[in-house]
Amino acid sequence: MDLSNGYEKIASEFISVRNKSLGISLFREWSKSLATPSKVLDIGCGDGIPVTQTVIESGHSVFAIDASKSMIQIFLGNFPDVPAKCEPVEHSNFFNEEFDGVIAIGIIFLLEESAQLSMLRKVVEILRPGGQFLFSAPIELGKWNDILTGEESISLGKDKYTQALSSAGLQLVRTTLDDGNNYYIAKKPE
């Protein structure tokens, strides 16, 4: 069973597309909103460019996970000093650490609904009070097949994500649109 949701077999194609399709303005803004230095977890890190790179350039330390072995190998080539694990989010212990920030770009909607809700609850457990969570998912409710893998993706929609964040103990700070994707920023109360 491929726990990378099809991304292991298309890792190099994904990296070439992702690096061109992600802007860094939102990641830089989010990183600067954290106290410096902060400890940040990048879930679904891919090769680390531009997300991990931007967070590090903002003065933070990063830990990273990705379910694709190829992605983690490339990531470690780019960032050899960053702790990184090859494991699916559903089975991760997140280094048994607490974080000031968690970022998950392009991953939550790859999971089944129950796994998405479980991931949100797990993020709350590892966020320190006042910590922030930035993730991407469409605002609209819907299902589609991923362009690169052909596997089903699921957006729970803004209302369900907002409710799930609240139920998990996070407060939605805002949603924003950047370079064709929808982003949610939530904060754990202090």
Task: Fill in the keyword field for this structure.
190 residues, alpha/beta, Rossmann fold, 7-stranded mixed sheet, two-stranded antiparallel ribbon
Structure description:
It is a single chain. This protein is of the alpha/beta class and 190 residues long. The chain has one domain: 3-Layer(aba) Sandwich (Rossmann fold). 33% of the residues lie in helices and 29% in strands. Helix 5 runs parallel beside helix 6. The chain is globular. The model has no long low-confidence stretch (mean pLDDT 86).
- The quaternary structure here is single chain
Q: Indicate the low-confidence ranges by residue numbers.
A: none
Q: Tell me how many strands there are.
A: 9
Rg over CA atoms, rounded to whole Å, is 15 Å
Report the CATH superfamily: Vaccinia Virus protein VP39
Number of domains: 1
Strand order of the largest sheet: 3-2-1-4-5-9-8
Give the CATH topology: Rossmann fold
Major β-sheet profile: 7 strands, mixed
Q: Which architecture name does CATH use?
A: 3-Layer(aba) Sandwich
User: What helical percentage do the residues reach?
Assistant: 25-40%
> How would you sum up the global shape?
globular
Strand percent estimate: 25-35%
Structural class: alpha/beta
Mean pLDDT, to the nearest integer, reads: 86
Q: State the end-to-end distance.
A: 40 Å
Secondary structure layout:
Elements: H1 11-21, H2 25-33, E1 39-43, H3 51-57, E2 61-66, H4 69-78, E3 84-86, E4 99-104, H5 113-126, E5 127-136, E6 141-145, E7 152-156, H6 157-168, E8 171-178, E9 181-187
Parallel strand pairs: 1-2, 1-4, 2-3, 4-5
Antiparallel strand pairs: 5-9, 6-7, 8-9
